Amino acid sequence: MCQLPTGVHPATLRLASLPSRLIYSEGLPAHHQNFPGRGSSNLRSERGFGDTKAHVPKQATMHKRTALTIFLLFAGIPAWGQQTNQGAWHFAVSGDSRNCGDVVMPTIAKSVLQHHAEFYWHLGDFRALYDVDEDLQQRYGDKLTLDEYRQIAWGDFIVNQVRPFEPVPVRLAIGNHELIGKTLADYLATFGYWIDTPGLRDLRASEYSQDGSLKAYYHWKNRHVDFISLDNSGDDGFDGAQMSWFEHILARDKNDKDVFSIVVGMHRALPNSLACGHSMNGDPPNPSEKSLKSGRQAYSDLAKWEKDSGKFVYVLASHSHFYMEDLFDTAYWKNPEHGGQVLPGWIVGTAGARRYSLPDLPPNVLKKANAQTDVWGYLLATVQENGAITFDFQKLGNKQVPEEVRTRYGDDFVDKFCFAGNHDDSTHTPAQSCQEK
């Protein structure tokens, strides 16, 4: 076992190995004994925790004693940003917070709080997991083995990346890095506190005819918007059960007079986008036909829903570590043979992961898409009363890093490594399907 740096509580090494509902009630210092990021808002007024009725893997089953503890802790917490039913409101979204996420995410949180966003949505890839993230290397040096790092990685994410958003609720989508050295059951057990809230569980139990078990994909409604968080963390994209669930939601929302728009978020972008080389088209030399087919089907479902319902559709993803808008303004989706319909889409993989070079596209295309790399930031969404949403990229600079974060990591790491460096020059060769028109 490694020697911990001075001031690091030994229980920190256990964080990621414990279910998230246990993390803050067993053995941590007093200043850590609260529950970050779920908050309590009019997102179904989610306060407290009762016994879960969801059927989850044994690894995800929680003790009733702990559930009661959390219920008591949350019972008296006021709702975040008490909502009214009138006027515009905001939410925030980005993804990919490995590598420098412990520096960038608190900076994002600081800005999100200043803009009074009602929740923050993380689109996956919390930690690298294939190797020790550089922000943890900065704190621990070479004292962590890979196995020890994986034991604390998700706990580190919760404490240093989710907690700074308090009291803003945090929603989580699963990325491909969540499954490196870990399983889906591990993910559900650790992050069930955020993806199995009472409101989400009630929706799952009352609306859909599946087995009621906890999944990495889910949805929630806020005012007149349905937010759908999909799971394409695996190389094969959306499985049949998820597609059936997704299409069932669309059918309900189409006829629901209380739903004005839908926002669909996921880790990998749907196929044949401007970021096609790192998307559901797959990665050569063995791209998955299942991923391509299910991703194209999901896009076609959304396009048809938008056309038939007359309501708004917005599609968000990360995975590619840069910013880009007008994501689906491509020859493939403009082709009438594929529907001839361009959906509003964004890539926002700008929360701390090593920045990628932009796709090899003509300069005028990159300019129109407002493509940017070597930037940190997030999308700030403004929702109007009629369900229309505008998305503005909030670019963050090193001067906005919270002082306590700068003190913890040092000026050189913050300024020179995270903000001036942290670039990945590797290329992402587009699959052959990206050439289809």
Question: What's the topology here?
Answer:
Blueprint: H1 20-23, H2 64-74, E1 89-94, H3 101-114, E2 120-122, H4 134-140, H5 146-162, E3 170-172, H6 184-195, H7 198-207, E4 218-222, E5 225-229, H8 240-255, E6 261-265, H9 289-309, E7 312-317, E8 323-325, H10 331-334, E9 345-348, E10 355-356, H11 363-368, E11 376-383, E12 389-396, H12 403-409, H13 411-419, E13 423-424
Parallel strand pairs: 1-2, 2-3, 5-6, 6-7, 7-9, 10-13
Antiparallel strand pairs: 1-11, 4-5, 8-9, 11-12
Weakly predicted, low-confidence segments: 1-35, 39-84
Order of helices and strands: HHEHEHHEHHEEHEHEEHEEHEEHHE
| Shape designation | globular
Strand composition percent: 5-15%
Question: In CATH, what is the homologous superfamily?
Answer: Metallo-dependent phosphatases
Q: Under the CATH scheme, which class?
A: Alpha Beta
If you consult CATH, what is the topology?
Answer: Purple Acid Phosphatase, chain A, domain 2
Kindly report the oligomeric state of this protein: single chain
Number of domain modules: 1
Second rung of CATH, namely the architecture = 4-Layer Sandwich
Number of helices: 13
Strand order of the largest sheet: 4-5-6-7-9-8
Which structural class fits the helix and strand makeup? alpha/beta
Count of DSSP E strands?
13
Largest sheet geometry: 6 strands, mixed
Please tell me the overall pLDDT.
Answer: 84
The first-to-last residue Cα distance is 55 Å
Share of helix, binned: 25-40%
